[in-house]
Amino acid sequence: MPKLRRLVLFMLSLSFALVTGLFQPTVTQAAQDSNYKIEINKQTNYLYLYQGNRVIKTYRVATGKNKTKTPEGTFPIIAKFVKPGWKNIPGGVPENPLGERWNGFSVNGDSGRKYGIHGTNNPNSIGTYASNGCIRMLNKDVIDLYDRVPEGTLVWIHSGKSNKVWRGNPDVGNSIVYQSQE
């Protein structure tokens, strides 16, 4: 009987933790130590890389085909891949639309494999509204970004005015998820 009681208590505790969001992705110690943050402005299609409160690099990007494709809010990078595969297309081949790197961010607690900052096999799409929700970068730019930012780095996505002042939620709040996939 005591084993059954412990099992029931464990299952109830686990259920409570999952329902209340206690297992949400968090900012890693490496991300805190690096002090990097990312701002993506969907209105201008620019990505700003911050170190501390200073913009140290600006990149041109492509965002969702319409305003509802790319989610807005503050999200942690939780999955990083070199030469990521896409559907049935292996990584590293010219046909792969994800390019050379994947920086997946967690939206509403997902695994970081649905939305991400990635390269592209279509460099002419950069600066436009072209994706199914992800953030596209030139391959040389996404390699540079990938090499700089650790997992846990916060990504703030918005469509407002950029004053080069990071105003994302430091508590890793999430916003509405738009159901789409790159």
UniProtKB/TrEMBL annotation:
It comes from the Bacteria. Keywords: Cell shape, Cell wall biogenesis/degradation, Hydrolase, Lipoprotein, Peptidoglycan synthesis, Signal, Transferase. Residues 36-158 form the L,D-TPase catalytic domain. GO terms for biological process: cell wall organization; peptidoglycan-protein cross-linking; regulation of cell shape. Coiled coil: none annotated. Residues 1-30 form the signal peptide. Pathway: Glycan biosynthesis; Cell wall biogenesis; peptidoglycan biosynthesis. The active site is at H118, C134. InterPro entries: LD-transpeptidase (IPR050979), LD_TPept_cat_dom (IPR005490), Transpep_catalytic_dom (IPR038063). One of its GO terms (molecular function) is transferase activity. PROSITE patterns: LD_TPASE. One of its GO terms (cellular component) is extracellular region. Pfam families: YkuD. Belongs to the YkuD family. This is Lipoprotein-anchoring transpeptidase ErfK/SrfK. It comes from Croceifilum oryzae. The lineage of its organism: Bacteria, Bacillati, Bacillota, Bacilli, Bacillales.
